[in-house]
Please model this.
Amino acid sequence: MGMRKVAVVGAGMTKFVRRAQETPKELSWQATHLALESCEMTMDDIDAVCMGTAPDAFDGIHMKGEYLSNGAGAWRKPYIRSYVGGGTGVFVPIQGWYHIASGLFDVVLVVAEEKMSSYYPHAQGAFLTIFDHTTERPLKPNLLWIFAMEMNRYMTTYGISKEDIAPVSVLHKRNAADHPCALLADPDITVEDVLNSEVLAWPVQRLDVSPVTDGAVTIVLAAEHVAKRVTDKPVWIEGVGWNLDTAYWTNRDLAYPRYVEYAARQAYEMAEIKEPRKEIHIVEPYDPFDYKALHHLEGLQLADRGTAPRLYADGTAARNGNMPVCPSGGLLGVGNPIAAAGLMKVAELFWQLRGEAGDRQVPGQPRRGLAQAWGDLMQVGTVVIMGR
Amino acid sequence: MNERVAIVGVGWIGFRPTTPELSYKELMYEAAVRAYNDAGVDPRRDIDSFVTVAEDFNEGTSIFDEYVPDQLGGVLKPVHTIPGDGLHGLISAYMLIRTGLCDVITLEAHSKASNLLTHSEVTAYAQDPVINRPLRLNTHFVAGLEMNRYLHETGTTREQCAIVVTKNKYNALDNPSAAYAADLTVEDVLSGPSLSWPLGMREASKPADGAVVMVLASEKKATYLGDKPIWILGVGWCNDSPSLESRDWAQAVYAQKASQMAYRQVGIASPNQVIDFVEIDDTYAYKELQALEALGFCLPGEAGVLTEEGYTTPDGDLPVNASGGSLGMGHLLDATGLSRALEVVLQLRGEAGRRQLKDVNVGLAQSWRGVPTTSGAVAVLSN
Model:
């Protein structure tokens, strides 16, 4: 017997902002309300709720999933939160997928929320406690440092320059100018702007990095018989994959994300994709830093190792190119509310594949897209493939 | 799709009030090796996916899921973490196998409670930061409020709650894994210091360290893994209102709805006729009585009387927490529900040693995530 088919039938998101006045519960409900409205459903139609949200330390709330439950719409419903660090945003739709594919439910809400502004003075503080308490924490590393190490390793291994990487930031932030929910959209940004921005931890500069953001995204998943009843344009979840590498990140080569490759291969196998470069029409790789989009395109087998910058140089990655990358504007442009940012990519594929992406619409009626997220200690890859 | 899912291997270490010689990673490793030996699997070769259960604040590490793969054999494999109770993890693994994507899954939950000097101050951070936290409500104080309402609405007495303590701690004397076994009288319990009236200090479970690992498999794999597959017949889970202001304080609505979901899957109309024994939440003594009523074994107000009459002892009609429960074994933070399920597995396999119940075929495990949540899960298992 084959697997039960699961479709995305609705999506909604809040504006991504630097300091939301709403509580985390309210952000969750705003996104959920919009998603339900988009497919003309009410909470009565929902069988279960899945929640994705990153460290409890952001909000300073123990068992944050429990706190968010009624905001997400889970009152007196089955509700489970899943968690794979920064990869959560693309894992939580996988969690929703297995709720329905298991045969237990027909309609499931998938909610991702993040409020990073509660952390004072800066959300980086929450990341000081992610390191090993014995071997690493005494050195007081922070995320920018370790990603600077990874970026440096990537550049050194393949002979890639800052000038090769900056076009990623330029393209994504320009794309975001067409996104009504974007935080950092800039239609006029240039490579020089990126290269002249403040150095944070060499080679990472301010415009290489996505902003600290508050926001929430919700999608509605449905089993085949329900999806065909509620919409003419269901977008099917064709493949899922996730993979976690060792916690000892200092022991591996940071030049190449093997865990992303393994997650992608799992998803390609399920979607029966043999030649991803031909069969994936839109890709939303995780781009909290500009080099990460390149790193991930290589891990996803959409570019050979060390050659992803060419996709940006020759226009392949542009919105009207052969394989548009982050037509949404990505984390660099729309914003990076950790878990919500990943689910935003899934929502973007939903809108693009239905032809509902407005000014962001990719031409040529794309049939299939891939969203990917990444997280933990440069350690986890999560992949979802969706198609019409 | 895989219709049927079984637990084919279990391993655990503990449970003890403190474990200074072992880190949480070593606890996880020990339990995993025992579970893999029990199931006869090599984690690098045979396991398709891993599900772990943890909450950041209990671990003192943000994004704790970073630190789980190595000691379980899960490096470069599909691993994900459920910040929930162990039973939520069991349910997630169950669903994942049912999809047909995976056949064999490792499930892990642990507690290193001894690292927490003041657990109730950590759980106080679970309260609403805007509405409740300025009131500085201690976690046990909220439990005391709930107990008071439960006693008031159902006519249950403090003595009946104290009998739960004496029963469970006495049961634990036969459980070599129990940390807090004792032979007490009702007087001993009631004469103890007050925690938050009417809740007494001896009616609250104490934290313990330990880890539980299970190997779950689809039917086609279960037939040749392990000797005694224990089948998952039905699962249910539910959240009621997280707000202190708008919840039902007397009844465990979450447990009622979770059990109804599980009973629907199994086809149970009257749980008393089908279920032979239960392992349920007894974080506080009154919770066991409240849960028994919510799970449909009796009407509100009857659980205390039945307990008084010996109905829930190991020799009674419905043995409740023959393992000793959280009161006798210790409260295992996020692994609590999984330790209840562990006992159900051992009883159904006939491997419960001196506390083995006779002629048991169907058992139920139930969990609650503690103050201030209204989150619970249920699993019905059979041999």
Chain A has a mean pLDDT of 96.
